[in-house]
Design goal:
The chain contains 5 helices and 7 strands. It has 222 residues and is of the alpha+beta class. The chain has 2 domains: 16-52, no CATH class; 69-218, Sandwich (Jelly Rolls), CATH 2.60.120. A 7-stranded antiparallel beta sheet has the order 1-2-3-7-6-5-4, sandwiched between helices. Strand 4 and strand 5 (152-162) form a beta hairpin.
């Protein structure tokens, strides 16, 4: 857990049978077909299912690049979770913006401090994302699954105390195909030295995660 100020914490493919069937038609029933023998009617063949219907292979949905992280959370959400923060956020420099992008918002309003990070990570495959996801939640006991977010999601909230000042931090990790979305949300009250409730932090982190997933899946305007 971090001390304040807190550092950055997230074809259809036509069957070749169709082509073969078409070639067969031209030789047996098309203009190049031989004339039928007297007294015999040409036999019509019923196309097989393989010839009449194209085959398709279902492929897992994948993401080629990380979305703009500072536009991934709505203005309404930012104002609710980080009162007083600039809603456009601050993107953290990345060596590879297609693979990893992060935006941060933080503000002190009165004595209440809030910090929100939203990170996107695009891996080379779904298997790689799954391996990374499992590794990150392996040592985060005490949390729980979050239904309805991506393919799988996990949420955890922890409380730390330093110099009698409490800080409560929530983290939501989401895997969607080959992408990972990581939300970190925390807060402190510098007057009472108490931290926000577990419920407030957890719900806030999940709300930001939902916004971020909407941005990943198709874009979202503030």
């Amino acid at each position: 857990m971090r001390s304040l100020p807190l550092p950055l914490a997230l074809t259809a493919r036509l069957s070749p049978v169709v082509v073969l069937a078409a070639a067969g038609w031209s030789l047996t029933s098309g203009p190049f077909a031989p004339a039928p023998a007297a007294g015999h009617e040409p036999t019509q063949k019923t196309p097989t299912a393989a010839a009449s219907a194209p085959s398709s292979t279902a492929e897992a949905k994948s993401y080629a690049a990380a979305p703009a992280p500072c536009a991934s959370v709505t203005t309404k959400t930012i104002k609710a979770l980080v009162p007083g923060a600039k809603t456009d956020g601050k993107e953290i420099p990345s060596t590879d913006t297609k693979a990893r992008r992060t935006c941060s918002w933080n503000a002190l309003k009165g004595f209440d401090y809030r910090w929100l990070d939203v990170s996107f990570e695009i891996t080379e495959s779904e298997a790689a994302a799954e391996k990374t996801y499992k590794g990150r939640i392996a040592d985060k006991s005490g949390g729980g699954d979050v239904p309805g977010l991506g393919d799988t999601a996990y949420s955890i909230v922890n409380l730390t105390t330093e110099d009698k000042q409490q800080t409560r931090e929530g983290e939501v990790i989401v895997r969607a195909s080959n992408a990972l979305v990581v939300i970190t949300y925390n807060g402190s009250d510098f007057e009472t030295k108490k931290a926000p409730s577990t419920d407030e932090i957890n719900k806030g982190a999940i709300k930001a995660a939902k916004d971020a997933m909407a941005a990943l899946e198709g874009g979202r305007k503030a």
